[in-house]
Amino acid sequence: MTLLIDSGNTRIKLGWRHPLTGVRESQPVSVHVDQLDQLAVWLEAGQAPLQAFTKQEGVQALGVNVAGPQVQMHIDAAVSRLGLGPVRWLQAQERAFGLHNDYEQAGQLGADRWASLLGLSDLLAQEYPAQQGALLISFGTATTIDLLGPAQNGMRHFLGGSILPGPSLMLAALKQNTAQLPEAHGQTAAFPRNTQSAISTGVAAAQAGAVLRQWEKGRQYLGHGPLVFLAGGGRALAQQELLEQLSHYCCLLNIETPQLHELETPALRGLALFAGHR
């Protein structure tokens, strides 16, 4: 088995893959960095076959990390305590597994974004028409909105994407940088009549508006509306607002509103491709 590690700014998500059979975890494990001393306990609770990891030759742990060198050091130490070899930390590449990275400098793309895009590209190849483009929106500490083009001659292109503060970061910024505004957890509304609702509505509208802009740019470029995939722990706040804005916009254009597909751990799916590669 190969341990898969997606180390984000807020949480560390872990999965696993058998390199020969392709068997994956039934439920990923999610921990904070201060819980890494209990990593074996968390993995056992997630039914990870720990004995199978140490029996494997070659790479026993694969990961992407955007949380900085200190967090990476803590993960390396925790993995070493499990009796595994050193983590192979991946970076973005120019191409892999039928996906071309169109970033001006391929290595500048965040490793987690690259792994997630590889995971989505693999999902598209397995379950969706090859001629469809797709938009991947990850609502994390930062929100990223990335466009994949349709497959052509067995290759898809990551065409680019935008980054903005994620929902939780927007909420925290208002609390920290204003004298009287709280960190809101209110309901969104057409015309908010309390501060909690006003803040939540403003953040949701900002997130949805950024996504709608990229979706329309993708539609103009591709000649069709891209499929829409949502990931990340902050998506709940923006999801309904996004659906309403997309529906209204598509109604004006007299086209079908795209379905919002949810993805739990696209980065782990992308990492699993490397775990199965010889």
Keywords:
12 strands, globular, alpha/beta, 8 helices, 278 residues, five-stranded mixed beta sheet, single chain
Rounded to the nearest angstrom, the radius of gyration is 20 Å
Molecular shape? globular
> How many strands appear in the DSSP assignment?
12
Biggest beta-sheet profile: 7 strands, mixed
Share of helix, binned = 25-40%
- The CA-CA distance between the termini, in Å, is 14 Å
Bin the strand percentage: 15-25%
SSE series: EEEHHEHEEEHEEEHHEHEH
Mean pLDDT: 93
Number of helices: 8
> What is the strand arrangement across the widest sheet?
6-7-10-9-8-11-12
Flag low-confidence runs: none
Structural class: alpha/beta
Characterization of this structure:
There is one protein chain. The protein is of the alpha/beta class and 278 residues long. Helix 4 (111-127) crosses helix 8, helix 5 packs across helix 6 and helix 6 packs across helix 7. The strands form two sheets. The chain has a seven-stranded mixed β-sheet with strand order 6-7-10-9-8-11-12, with helices on both faces. Strands 3-2-1-4-5 form a five-stranded mixed β-sheet, with helices on both faces. The protein has eight helices and twelve strands. The protein has helices at 39-45, 50-55, 69-81, 111-127, 167-177, 195-222, 235-253, 266-275, and strands at 2-7, 12-17, 29-31, 61-65, 88-89, 95-96, 99-101, 134-139, 142-148, 156-165, 227-231, 260-262. Strand 6 (95-96) and strand 7 (99-101) form a beta hairpin. The mean pLDDT is 93.
